[in-house]
Amino acid sequence: MTEGQLRVLLADEQSLFREAVKVVLSSEGDLDVVAEARDGVQAVAEAERTQPDVALLDANLPNCDGIRATQLILARVPACRVIVFSGQEDERVLLEAMEAGASGYLSKEAPLAELIEATRAVHRGEALVPPRMLGALLQRVIHRRRERDEAIKRMTNLTRREREVLALLAQGADNDVIAQRLVISPETARTHVQNVLGKLRVHSRLEAAAFVTQNGILDDLVPAER
């Protein structure tokens, strides 16, 4: 490796794809593929070992998909920038990748020259989204924001105790566990659970837990006292 080259990690289940991309990237004077991985677990391990500047991850990696691998790599190698790619342009993958902290997203259908420039761009601190997908991304982000705002609005109707109950529901607690943790009777716990479901406008404990997870509001809940 020459001083000043960008260190690149390449992760894809298909060895032929990895080899093709590696050959193209390595032909560039400023890029060096320092590690390869065939699944997400290996990608995270290689990222920790080699400390790459940029990680190129397939969204559908086995064992640990590219979205989860992105989160783990950024948590363990904060200076790394991640580009997620998928077989074809997919709005869902794009949104999940950006929410996981990826700096860029590309389709495998894009020319390899585009991947090369994307690698350089994210290392410079730029965010990379295919222009034709930008509108869809903004719409999804706005929609998610509205959903979270609605979730926060519903939460304001909960009492402190009900927020404690909701936090426990999100952890999978049943009435007996809730009663034990909050030092109340199972019957009182059952009443609190029903009140929470009614105020959140959901029909089951599972929906209540999903409400918390999907809207990312666990940290906004009051933790149960121990």
Task: Provide the descriptors you would attach to this structure in a database record.
single chain; 226 residues; alpha/beta; five-stranded parallel beta sheet; 10 helices; 5 strands
Given helix and strand content, the structural type is alpha/beta
User: How much is the average pLDDT?
Assistant: 86
Q: Hey, roughly how much beta strand do the residues contain? A: 5-15%
Question: SSE string, helix = H, strand = E?
Answer: EHEHEHEHEHHHHHH
Count of runs of 4 or more consecutive helical residues: 10
Count of DSSP strands: 5
Low-confidence stretches: none
Backbone shape:
elongated
Rg over CA atoms, rounded to whole Å, is 22 Å
Portion of residues within helices: 55-70%
Summarize the main sheet: 5 strands, parallel
Write the layout of secondary structure elements.
Elements: E1 6-11, H1 15-26, E2 31-37, H2 40-50, E3 54-58, H3 66-76, E4 81-86, H4 91-100, E5 104-107, H5 112-123, H6 131-155, H7 160-170, H8 175-182, H9 186-200, H10 205-215
Helix pairs in contact: 2-3, 3-4, 7-9, 7-10, 8-9
